[in-house]
Design goal:
The protein has 314 residues and is α/β, with parallel strands linked by helices. Helix content is 43%, strand content 18%. The protein contains 14 helices and 13 strands. Helix 3 runs parallel beside helix 5. The relative contact order is 0.13. NADP nicotinamide-adenine-dinucleotide phosphate (NAP) binds at residues 11, 13-17, 38-40, 43, 46, 60-62, 80-85, 141, 164, 166-167, 170.
Length: 314
């Protein structure tokens, strides 16, 4: 039996990495083994991955030496950062640099960098349609990921840039809410434009599809989504799945930014970017390509049918 190629997965106990770990472990004859990176090998989630058959090792993206040790001997590395754990694009940049350095030091043969567009290429800081945030960003968690692509390319790494989409799992935290008229509604500043979305589990499955394709995606940027839906289309899908009417409330990006929850300004800018550059943003996320990487790719209706019981109805 040829030896299995090891894929080291950052964020293995989380959404993207977890999906990739399960995709590898579920494909017993796929030729790949998984090394799950976690800060705490004794957590319940880490133990669960070990029980499923993953090699579980300690690593922290804030500690480049721990990454070098964890990537040693791996064929592939899945690299992702955790913006919402700290709200710092500078830390995201540092973490990405550390992962690129570690992949180089370990001689990894295929790196996937989980990235997003640097929105400043289309909305320079001088463009006042949306406020500049933290002094040098428009959508910090997008811009830092896009900017960080250069760390991987500068080192000449064999890298695939994987552009992800809005997780439908976000609806589990912020599902339809009752308005003053006690009717349920979802609220975005997207007008009638369509929002690419995906089940987070499918991101990992698509990443596995990229590793399985060998060299085909090295040096390439690939965007993925399970569906492109307008707010009205998502509301109609909610109405069908929940058996009660859900409306789409379109608000202005300014109103959304003023909602006041942590990150509301950044999310307002993000949705505005996706609205104003709908063609480019959707064009970068082909459903056909996503399905070719992951034949099990869920549609929004399928995702809702499986997950509606988890969505809190306020
Ligand atoms: N939400 C969305 O719609 C969306 C869409 C596209 C992209 N994204 C991006 O996705 C990224 C997050 O990925 P995710 O959703 O897969 O994360 P997640 O589900 O929040 O999980 C992150 C996992 O990473 C680990 N982790 C956290 N800090 C770490 C550190 N310093 N070193 C090593 N591991 C660490 C934690 O594991 P341990 O505790 O076991 O160490 C945690 O279980 C964000 O940067 C976000 O911008 C989000």
């Amino acid at each position: 039996m040829p030896e299995k190629k090891i894929i080291a997965v950052v964020g293995s106990t989380g959404a993207q990495g977890g999906g990739l770990v399960r995709a590898i472990l579920n494909d017993k004859n796929g030729g790949f083994a998984v090394r799950a990176l976690t800060r705490d090998v004794n957590s319940d989630k880490a133990k669960e991955l070990a029980k499923l058959g993953a090699e579980v090792v300690a690593a922290d993206v804030d500690d480049v030496d721990s990454l070098k040790r964890a990537f040693e001997g791996a064929y592939g590395a899945y690299c992702v950062t955790f913006y919402w754990a700290h709200f710092s694009p500078d830390r995201e940049l540092e973490n990405a640099r550390a992962m690129a350095e570690a992949a180089k030091a370990a001689g990894v043969e295929h790196v996937i960098w989980s990235t997003l567009e640097d929105t400043r290429k289309l909305v320079p800081l001088s463009d006042n349609r949306m406020p500049t945030l933290m002094g040098e960003y428009k959508v910090p968690h997008f811009d830092a990921k896009g900017q960080a692509e250069q760390f991987f390319s500068d080192l000449g790494l064999p890298v695939t840039y994987l552009r992800t989409s809005f997780y439908w799992e976000n609806f589990i935290g912020m599902g339809p809410k009752k308005g003053a008229d006690s009717k349920l509604a979802i609220t975005f500043p997207m007008g009638d434009k369509k929002l690419p979305g995906i089940s987070a589990e499918d991101i990992g499955k698509c990443a596995y599809g990229i590793f399985k394709k060998g060299r085909e995606y090295i040096g390439k940027t690939v965007g993925i989504a399970g569906g492109h839906l307008s707010g009205a289309e998502m509301a109609a899908a909610f109405t069908k799945a929940l058996g009660q009417e859900v409306r789409y409330d379109d608000v202005s990006p300014e109103a959304f930014r003023a909602f006041g929850f942590p990150g509301a300004d950044e999310m307002g800018n993000m949705f505005q970017f996706k609205r104003d550059f709908e063609q480019a943003y959707r064009g970068a996320r082909s459903l056909d390509v996503s399905r070719s990487l992951n034949p099990d790719l869920q549609t929004f209706d399928q995702w809702l049918a499986r997950n509606k019981s988890l969505i809190p109805i306020a």
